[in-house]
Amino acid sequence: xxxxxxxxxxxxxxxxxxxxxxxxxxxxxxCRATYGSAIFISGVRVLKFIDCPSVPEGNARMxxxxxxxxxxxxxxxxxxxxxxxxxxxxxxxxxxxxxxxISVCHVGGKYVVTAPDAFEYYKALLSKYGFxxxxxxxxxxxxxxxNIQYNVAFVGKHAIHNFRxxxxxxxxxxxxxxxxxxxxxxxxxxxSTCVIDDAAxxxxxxxxxxxxxxxxxxxxxxxxxxxxxxxxxxxxIGGCTGLISKDEIAFIGDVTKHSxxxxxxxxxxxxxxxxxxxxxxxxxxxxxxxxxxEG
Length: 295
What we know:
- This protein has helices at residues 71-78, 100-103, 119-126, 168-176, 206-214, 261-270; strands at residues 2-9, 14-23, 26-30, 38-41, 44-49, 60-65, 82-85, 104-108, 111-114, 132-135, 153-155, 158-161, 180-183, 193-197, 200-203, 218-221, 241-245, 248-251, 274-277, 290-294.
- The protein has 295 residues and is α/β, with parallel strands linked by helices.
- The longest helix has 10 residues, at 261-270.
């Protein structure tokens, strides 16, 4: 790995010195200097914040994942970009304590809201990349529904959640940015929602499926089960997936082992996406793959 320094020139920063890591075929920038929603080197955009949460427009280059994600999946993702591994929350039960979609809510662009107990951890990791990491107002607690405050599913300009329990600061961002709010009973909304693009999802939750369809989102309803989650009968489809590029949806494990595989493949391919299996094991709910930077 080669390290070097470069002078940065933007309209906001003149001759700002930044550190560069040249990682294989792309560049990751460690700096605070940003211009709009992108990071520039000598006027050339290298990486940008993902404006629409969960939906990159290019190749994702940074991901938040559970630190306990199987090593096979970690290694495959690490070939594509920087991995931000979660810290384990002591406030909620072990199975979800390291799930990124429990403690972190990317509300778009450079803005990331975290649970208070995770704030300092993510601020230290993400602020150096230009992210504005914001401390949420709701403390995570052990049991449902007091651990769902940040588990919002964003689908294009729609936000899906049980909004009676959404963190108030997250809710302010949702309203300020003009998201159409789809209120559902299922508080583990992101866990339950595999986002295929800005207008399509896969879910095993009937309430989310019906509500999304009512708002014009194309939804594939699949059977419950076929996804592992320690201590529980099964996990959720959103928790084992994430878009890793404009054209690729990744599964933590092997989706061909799922009983609804052929329906999932048909739906994904109809939306112009390719499936990437991050391992040959049974699908594992690890609290989603959250993409943050692309380029």
